[in-house]
Amino acid sequence: MEFKVRAYRFNPETDEKPYYKEYTAEDYPGMTVLNALIKIKSELDGTLSFRRSCRSAICGSCAMKINGITKLACKTQVSLEIDKFGIINVEPLANMPVIRDLIVDQEVFFDKIKAIKPYLLGQREDAAHNRFKTLKEGEKISQPVYDKSEFKNLTGNEDTPNCILCECCYSECGGVVGNKNYLGPAALAKLYRYAEDPRDNDKNGSRLVNGSKPNGFWDCVHCQSCEQFCPKGISPVKSIVRLHEKSVKNSITFSPGSKHVVSIARSIGETGRLDEIKVAFESGGVTGLLNDLPVAFGAGLKGKIPPLRHKLIKDMEDIRLAYKELDLEDKL
Amino acid sequence: MITYAYYPGCVAQESGKELDNATKYIASKLDLNLIPMPEASCCGGGVIDGFDKNLKLFINGRTLALAEKEGLDIMTICNTCTLTLSEVNEELINNPESLEKTNEYLAKIGLKYTGKVKVKHILYAVRDDIGFDKLKEKAVKSLKGIKIAPFYGCHILRPSSAVKFDDVENPQGFEELIKALGGEPVSYARRTKCCGFQTILVNESTSTSLAGNAIYEAQEKEADVMVTPCPLCHLSLDTYQTVAAKNINKKLSLPILHLPQLIGIALGADYAEMGFSRHNVSLRGVMAKVRQNEI
Asked: Which of A67, A245, A292 lies closest to B49 in CB terms?
């Protein structure tokens, strides 16, 4: 079967602006988008530039936008894309500047990975953890982080440490689209991986404190794209939510994001409902309220005013019991 | 008549009351019997697991158990409620440990959950249970000549491990509904992207730039109106539209409809019945166009 590939082309040294070039290729059973691009490069146009290496969905080099969604080209079947979209549109990853054609500058992405300190902090004081020992033949190195049920329960895989840094999540992340300084899903999933590592010696909770600052894990927009489009089945957003929970449980609640979550929990614990006015006030404080005043005033003029006092839901004692059973009353 | 346990969520009962009213209006016209759930609590607004993941299980497990006790499936009108209830449902069905823990709590309040309830958003309840043919039959106004930009948002589509109504890469349910009502769906890239609502009180700039750019793109594609299946998206897109315009430094003036309002217009509802006076961006232009379209 013959099919069309429409590729994003841009060489900043010679082109004024990006353009698209169309190629025709011949499909064969099992052909991947990467196979198609390699064929085009070797037979039709040697100038088409893209990263690639392992062809086995493990190096993460060939991530790109395919028909609008970020995927690994080597893991994407041509026939499935053609069935759904009738064409193969290829574009560079989003949220990063283009170097040439489908190749992006990854520096910002890796700077953000470095920013979360992707290594074990300090040395634990208990001698057993610091003692090097020779392994016996056939003995496996114990990697406690892989055994933690926390990681296994996120998406059913032993997932968070399996990130291949392909940048699919970063390219699809709504938080980065809205704020280029946001750390993004890959870095924050890694932050969680270290925050949970029993070998890490983060004595003063610096990982959670730093991650709670602006551009950190409270800036996640919960768009779920990172989980949806991760080619390795990892759920960065679930890791981010675990960081939220870990911060609240450790009383690291200085950020508006944590205040927002605690306020919603408090509101439900009091009435069973979400009190919009109270949550707005408690999340942003006086500054937030003043900032939102024009919007609130405009909405008020249109009659969009939530009730000032909320009726309790029927059988409210059931909800109170849930808080009691989970020992959450003192967190409100 | 199709019967559902009706879970409107908090916003549709508070600042977004027009959505609840529009839903009840179309339900009466489409023989949809919506049973209220006065005991149901807030789902946690999509962030409650950031406070405690078991609390998310308990309060939403309770909502599911309330519906199961009545032998009913749940119909939602909010993307985030849909996702939260669906995620908890999946967890309780697939994880015996979570089900046991939740049922220990539920037993203390006289409830039990066995995993029989389905959670369905109204968009897909209309598609699957009422059918677009019946909708066409009941319509008294055509939306012919009106360019309608569907804004799916996130939680009705993603993650597809929990919400399984449509093709997550190229959803068509919304477009099919618009076509069934005679309207012209506008195709634009941000139709499945995020409105930013979840950070609107935390990082307004991030949030409104997402909403603003979606509105701007639809406007550039000459949309007359945008429609959303979620009251949270509606707050971002309509209530915060002026702030979004300032943030992205673009002129924005696109009316935003709740999905049931779009159906309501086709079923003959007037301006007041749909609560259009509560919207930030006026619907008068769109309604004037519709008025000319008698079937």
From this structure: A245
Cα(A94)–Cα(A170) distance, integer angstroms: 8
Mutate to test the interface with B, among A168, A179, A219, A222 (most CBs of B within 10 A): A222
Q: Tell me how far CA of residue B213 lies from CA of A174, B170, B209, in angstroms.
A: 12, 20, 6
In this structure, which amino acid lies at residue B201?
A: L
SS3 for A122?
Answer: coil
Domain A107-126+142-249 adopts which CATH fold?
Answer: Fumarate Reductase Iron-sulfur Protein; Chain B, domain 2 (1.10.1060)
- Test the B interface: residue of A69, A271, A318, A326 with most B CBs within 10 Å: A318
Class of domain A2-104: alpha beta
Q: Where are the domains of chain B?
A: 2-121, 137-291
pLDDT band at A201 (very low <50, low <70, confident <90, very high): confident
Tell me what ipTM this predicted complex has. Answer: 0.95
| β-pair type (A2-9, A19-26) | antiparallel
Type of residue at B204: E
With CB atoms and an 8 Å threshold, state whether B48 touches A245: no
| Helix A236-249 and helix A256-271, axial crossing angle in degrees, nearest 10 | 80
Q: Name A20's bridge partners.
A: A8
Residues counted in chain A = 332
Look-up: residue for tokens 């006790």?
B69
Confidence tier at A285 by pLDDT (50, 70, 90): confident
Per-residue pLDDT band for A307 (boundaries 50, 70, 90) equals confident
Q: pLDDT tens digits for B10-50?
A: 999 999 999 999 999 999 999 999 999 999 999 999 999 99
Residue-range domain boundaries for chain A: 2-104, 107-126+142-249, 256-331
CATH architecture of B137-291: 3-Layer(aba) Sandwich (3.40)
The answer to whether B231 and B9 are in contact (CB under 8 A) is yes
Q: What CATH architecture applies to the domain B2-121?
A: Up-down Bundle (1.20)
What pTM did the predictor assign? 0.94
What is the model's pLDDT at position B213?
A: 97
Cβ within 8 Å of residue A280, ≥6 positions away: A288, A289, A292, A296, B201
* A35-50 average pLDDT score: 98
Give which of B249, B168, B175, B255 is closest to B208, Cα–Cα: B249
Q: Do B47 and A264 touch (CB under 8 A)?
A: yes
Give first-to-last CA distance, chain A, whole Å. 62
Q: Please state the rounded mean pLDDT for residues B246-255.
A: 97
**Total Cβ atoms within 10 A of residue A194:** 18
* Residues A176 and A219 sit within 8 Å (Cβ to Cβ): no
Q: Tell me the residue type at A80.
A: L
Burial of B107 (0-12, 13-18, 19+ CB in 10 A): exposed
Tokens 């759920």 correspond to A235
